Amino acid sequence: MAQIPNLDNAPINLISIREQSQKELINILKNEHGVELRHLSADHIQTDCTKVVYLVRSQPNLMRHICSNIHHDESKGLQREYHVYFVPRRTVVCEKVLEEEKLHNMVTIGEYPLYIVPMDEDVLSFELDLAYKECQVDGDTSSLWHIAKAIHKLEFSFGVIPNLRAKGKASVRVADILNRMQAEEPVNSSDFLNIKNGSIELDASIMGLQQEGKKTKVPLNSSDKLFKEIRDLNFEVVVQILRQKATSMKQDYTEMTTTSQSVSELKDFVKKLNSLPEITRHINLAQHLTTFTSKPSFMGQLDMEHTIVESQSYDICFDYIEELIHKQEPLTTVLRLLILFSVTNSGLPKKHFDYLRRELLHSYGFEHITTLNNLEKAGLFKKQESRSNWLTIKRALQLVVEDTDTANPNDISYVFSGYAPLSIRLIQHAIRSGWRPVEEILKLLPGPHLETKRGAFSNSPSFDSLSGVSTGIAKVPDGRRALVLVVFVGGVTFAEISALRFLCSQEGMAYDLIIATTKIVNGQTLVETFMEKLG
Amino acid sequence: MANVSVAAEWQLLYNRYYRKPELYPMRWKHVDLARHKVAAAPFGGPVAVIRDDSKIVQLHAESALRKLRLFNSAGHPLADAVWRHPGGRLIGMSWTDDLTLVCVVQDGTIYRYDLHAQLVEPNISMGKECFEQNVADCVFWGNGVVCITEQNQLFCIPDFRNPKPVPLADPMIEEPPRCIAVIEPQYTMSGNVEVLLGVADDPVVLVVEEDGVQRLGEGLLRGPLQKMVVSRDGKWLASFTHDGRLLVTTSDLTGIIIERECESSLPPEQIAWCGMDAVLLYWDDMLLMMGPDGDPVHYFYDEPIILIPECDGVRILSNTSMEFLQRVPDSTVSIFTIGSTSPAALLYDALDHFDRRSAKADENLRLIKPSLPEAVEACVDASGHEFDVSRQRTLLRAASYGQAFCSNFQRDRIQEMCKILRVLNAVRSPEIGIPLSIQQYKLLSPSVLIGRLINAHRHLLALRISEYLGMNQEVVIMHWACSKITASLSIPDATLLDILLDKLKLCKGISYAAVAAHADKNGRRKLAAMLVDHEPRSSKQVPLLLSIGEEDTALMKATESGDIDLVYLVLFHIWQKRQSLEFFGTIQARPLARDLFITYARCYKHEYLKDFFLSTGQLQDVAFLLWKESWEFVKNPMASKGSPLHGPRIKLIEKAQSLFAETKEHVFESKAAEEHAKLLRIQHELEVTTKQAIFVDSSISDTIRTCIVLGNHRAAMRVKTEFKVSEKRWYWLKVFALATIKDWVALEKFSKEKRPPIGYRPFVEACIEADEKAEAIKYIPKLADPRERAESYARIGLVKEAADAASQAKDGELLGRLKLTFAQNAAASSIFDTLRDRLSFPGAS
After folding, report:
1. Among B507, B510, B564, which would you mutate to test the A interface (most chain A Cβ atoms within 10 Å of its Cβ)?
2. Which InterPro entries does UniProt cross-reference here (chain A) (predicted)?
3. Cβ–Cβ of A140/B595 closer than 8 Å?
4. Which of B536, B558, B583 marks a domain boundary?
């Protein structure tokens, strides 16, 4: 199996993006023999190398480690050559730190403009792990600029995106920055490949806190054909499919030993045998996952998530969460449910809010006050200030679907066994008919929304007549479907990706979808970005 | 025939024709080259003239002050400046590649002038040695100069763009050299300049470099050299020997290519290469052109001349005219040679007949039909080489006439040539005075030509040419805008802004910031601010706004741009410039800047951040900082352990508490801090009494558990009471603690203390998790909910009991789920199926 995803079948040429990044990295490390790789940390570097290259995200807090490394070398009288390559670009604030530490003359500064990492043939990540927290808690919107820049870079390769829809404060801001970039440094539309009708959806992950229990350590992506087949299935169904595969293989094998076969049949059989290791591995994986998904706690949690989303039995939810705290279940598990509970109720009554916070501090320690403070600032766990409109939203967008057939789904709600992720439902509407028909519902959700047409020559008056040409949903001349780039600001879960792929595979779908995200997250990892221990 | 008169003006040298058309009659007045030092730039560049102070001349009706005068190649005045520089005689002057006039004076100072006779600061010095020894002579090339001092030491500046004098090796000669030449760095092996010296009484050439001197040509030269010149490509050396011979050798002096006797043994005043095929020697009134063979050509002048070498010939400047001596191009020869019957000549002739409506035209055409394309091509090519516009036109008409009968000729060839000629004719007009030949134009490139035009402030022409050639006009407009600002001191800001914007808008993507920066440099800050407002690129706009002191606008624009880096740039700028309080006020009003400041300060300026929060009244944020600091004591063992009551740490937390208490929105935090302080005290006491350092910094719940695990129930109870721990939580904690130490007896006792407030589920769960089925069975029956009972039984594998409980619950879905749990167990499955069937038909059971 390939270690990195195969991008040959991507709807746009992602290979070039990857190759460019690779080339630039090699340039940085060129002529170096015997490169040792280390993770940046406050620990001093123990090595005989006389040249140290730091490849570091341009976050001011990371500079501290570099400074401490160099100061340590200085104190030991070690003479080394230091290079700092900022990803994706050098920034004033990071250089300021070096300057304050009087190190700016000792280091050679470079840039590694890595804005986008293709994760799969239809998934791009900006790898901004902390974007959501930084925007919501710290008010640091660097990531929004990064996202806009990354999209703008894509536009330079693939042409201007003519239609743009955004929902949420951060998304609308990204759209705004993107339009500024286009005004400052216009992409000319003349000589590009075939995105002519693409439209873009930007969506702050308002509700991206649930997901299946998938967690993997083996590289799993589209290069693995079997994985491609099963990855987007509901967890209940995966085992059945695998069982079918194994059974049919076994049957073939039996036939093979009992009856005489023609050579071509034999060949077919051997071909199938080749996929045996894959099947074995997936059966092992699935089995491993089953140990989680069949646990009462997993089922209980899933049930509880549904109960919270259905938003009919406040007390049951409250008691359940209270008990989790008392039992000192892992804090992330608790916070996940708590956030879902708070968001669907648009906060908790002050009495309950204070009570649960107190119980949390008592059970897990006072150092978690910052975490709670962060969640409050982000509006994820807060005091109730207005009536929740979740029920209206849920109903209007049909987020909870009864009788979901997880094996033969006909709606995206299959990914959560009956709950359709809000973000994907919105995208479904946006693709089908734009924002206008759902305008009233959009107003119920936090943050503004935006729908705009853009042209390559928008700021040159003489070309105005050209920009309005591409209207409506049309197929690109060569028969490929037009492209939609769906950008998630703050993160997207595998389940949401699966739901999008499901949409994409539906008959009558006019578009190919490409997903871009600040980071692929799950409930756990997203909550973790907000956790900050005082200690 | 017209052809005859053209060729009549040619001279034959060996087997090649040469011509010498007059480019311009010189428009200048009263310039006598004999009395002046002259520097003329190649590629039809300008001419600098200044009275020669090494000659004694009679002053007519002119000032005693010397004047540096600049002219274009047609003698049209460009600018002048009075020369009052100290430093002794002017030794030499020359134009660099970018048309800066460099003037070397005796003490080694180099003064530089631009095309407008403005002195370019700073002056360059050739160094201390030159200053002390005096410069005796100098030789220039493209962008460099070599000076020789009166003590025969050599110094060079390899590149005027980085004017650092470099000493060359000592040639160890007593007398000044007879002649000097240089091989440009781009043609030498070492990449450094090589200086060739011809010395008295020594039949060699000394080659001086930075790190050594070589003697070349020994045994080859038969006597010292009087005059030398290196060919344009650095490969050949033409020299004049002491006994009146012209020698052409390779430039490394390994072989003689040509050796010809001249008519005089007196060294010529000037010697120059004419292209690569001929050498020109100039004595007083005679110019001699020598080729590889055959008789030399003589030209006679009754006035002084200056030879200006070009890549394809030599321009000859005299007091009254500018001529261009060049080899006649092959295409021109083929058309105009007397008696030529080449297809091109017949085509040219055909046009003549055609114009005179003679049928001979057709006859001619038919004659050359197979070679018509070549003929057309020759006419096009020849037109390119003409300076005479009417002859260009005739040749192009001939080409176009021929093309009409010619199917396979590249159609755009004529069009392309017309384009080039229109540009050439435009710059050749006497006002512009740049007499480029087509070959020179191609070598120079259109973009350099445009650069020269804008340097000469010929913006309109430059703009039209770049538009005509489809080139980027940004360079031109930008230069125009900057020159306009410099030249418009008296125009008010608003008026000038309109004038500038009117032109700047012609060019999309032009940098308004660059123009604004120029305005600011010219002391027009207000204009700069108005201009920079039109700059769409924030990354250019913001730094400029900072440099002109518009910090608040800069902050606003940076914030709007969404580029955090720019916001930080402004932030640090203001931070450095303003008093703390003023700075705090500024950023407090701008949320993004404030948040970024906080993010940065949180990492690196902790104390300063406290000042900020205090100044803006955000006491709770100070409290959070203090609370955070209290944990720093944990990281620093010196400060924490050993100190009674963890004094300083608790004090910080209490301070945080009181700060929280200042605002009523933070009652919760205040209470939490208070409890935290209290907890630390109790934990410290516990550590003292138990002599185990395991309490500090664990949570209240953990503290209770630890106490129970240690068997210290009284302490556990105390913590419970102190912190008003609810009964619910207390039961979970105690049950799990007892299960941890497997004290099943105590657990049972606890279950019987009173009816547990949250039922028996904690007991069941604790036992199951500890894998104590026997213990679990004690509590499962006490569970109130049959569904819970069923699931608990199922978890410890008791199928029958689970099934019973489930059927009590009358829950079909539960049964299904339990069945799944026992999927491997066929017997169990059937039990559940039966039960479920019964449930589906309640009447039957």
Report:
1. B564
2. Sec-1-like_dom1, Sec-1-like_dom3a, Sec1-like, Sec1-like_dom2, Sec1-like_sf, VPS33_dom3b
3. yes
4. B536
